[in-house]
Design brief:
Number of strands: 11
Radius of gyration: 13 Å
Strand content: over 45%
Largest sheet: 7 strands, mixed
Shape: globular
Structural class: mainly beta
């Protein structure tokens, strides 16, 4: 079974930065499109960013463009989300997710991701 474990969340003031990490095990990491989603209190889970299998292509939700950067280091089986200029509305539980290795689209649909981590809390104070 594939395991995804997020880390790096915490409490930060508005304007600050955090880097989230997602460590994968149990599969060929380089064969999977990876994504980040988030779920704010009382809200549904939404797309944040995705990165291609090689790391050469990325996709972002409009509200985080220019502030967040998704990347991966396949040799370490790890995907990252660098978050800069954080805003209170970024407060959420952030989830790492992996697509099945058959697919290559950088999907923004959570139902297209087969494997999920447990999430890491990001809280941005005003």
């Amino acid at each position: 079974q594939v395991q995804l474990v997020e880390s790096g969340g915490g409490l930060v003031q508005a304007g600050g930065s955090l880097r989230l990490s997602c460590a994968a095990s149990g599969r060929d990491f380089s064969s999977s499109v990876m994504g980040w989603f988030r779920q704010a209190p009382g809200k549904e889970r939404v797309f944040v960013a995705a990165v291609s299998k090689s790391g050469d292509n990325t996709r972002y939700e409009d509200s985080v463009k220019g502030r967040f950067t998704i990347s991966r280091v396949n040799a370490k089986s790890t995907v990252y989300l660098q978050m800069n200029s954080l805003k209170p509305e970024d407060t959420a539980v952030y989830y790492c997710a992996a697509r099945n290795s058959l697919w290559s689209r950088l999907s923004n649909d959570s139902s297209d991701y087969a494997y999920w981590g447990q999430g890491t809390q990001v809280t941005v104070s005003s």
